[in-house]
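Let's practice the habit of predicting before peeking. Look at the sequence and jot down your guess about where helices and strands might fall. Then scroll down.
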Amino acid sequence: MNDLTQCVVTPKVKLDGFDSLGVGVHRASTIVFKDAQAYATRGDRGDEGYTYGLYGTPTTRTLEAKITTLEGGLRTFLVPSGQAACSLAILALVKAGDKVLIADTAYPPVRDFADRDLTKFGIEVEYYDPTSLSDLEARMDERTRIVWCESPGSTTMEVQDIRAIAAIAHRSGALVGCDNTWATPLNFKPLEHGADIVAEALTKYFSGHSDVLMGSITVGSQDLAAPIRATLGRYGIGVSPDDASMVLRGMETMGIRLKHASEAAYAICEHFAQSRLVGSVLFPPRPDCPGHELWSRDFTGSSAVFSVIFTAEATPHVADALDVLKTFAIGASWGGTRSLMAPMPIKRFRTARPWVGEDLVLRISIGLEALSDLQTDVAAFLTCIAQAAGTDRADDQNTVRLQQK
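Done guessing? Here is the structure:
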């Protein structure tokens, strides 16, 4: 061969005996075939065969298989983000004239997708009270194709009875989908509780380092796998094998990271709960949190995301007080190594179950820092709020206690 040809033709190297613990990164758009017949019959390879990089490489298939096992499902598909997982899981399974019921506490971009895009395609969208089975049942009809859940709910942490919801939906011939990003399959497996579809934002606890965007859709039956696979192909949806390898690496420490972060979250929750500046702490593992009984029944553990609702006099000063933080960062998302705080408005995203409390809710994600440093930050944060609100008296025992640690 000419040298120019040698530069682009790759020699075959024996892989026998190379058994690495790490998953190899297989990058490909074109997949080559041994002869013309193999190419002509490439469609016969089935879902597990390789035909083009968009439809999977050994790297992405490894991640899919690993997630499928954790979820207890039949097949997993990777998509570019958690939002893509939610929207594409719904879009692939509905048609004009269908109806979709979405939990009123779902991730706001899911509402935006439903209101702007599903309705544009002739699909009716309704929102239901996530804590009211009677409200859901009243909204069900013969056109209902999907009931979409998110448990706990975005920011306000309402826990849904997935078993009962699945029973109601299935009686009417509807499917149940669940965004499981808060819990991950380490703490809750929606498919085992009756859901048909589970979406995860792999961006968060799976990857664990705030440097990858990815999502997954896992289904429990082949009837659902085929239309989702076809839809992703038509829309040209795929993920980078390099990103998939980073998620695979992150998954290996997910259990330990979740354990460390959730233990710290319990402690930080308690400090907030003791402050007279705080109206309530929304964290399902806490006995005083609405939905705690359902969480105790169905979940095997907790993540490290919770929300804080401040008193009326403290709320106006919360956003400005974020500027004193040294260890916590200010930002969206969660599940990475850094602890985060993000003020979230609620009322404009609720219709079926109006939000009656303070409109600003502070969502907090605990990361992997030392608990003592997080406690120091919380102390400074609460002191700043107290001073701004004119309530910085020494009887705020929580702030005093934190300053002494």
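How did you do? The radius of gyration is 24 Å.
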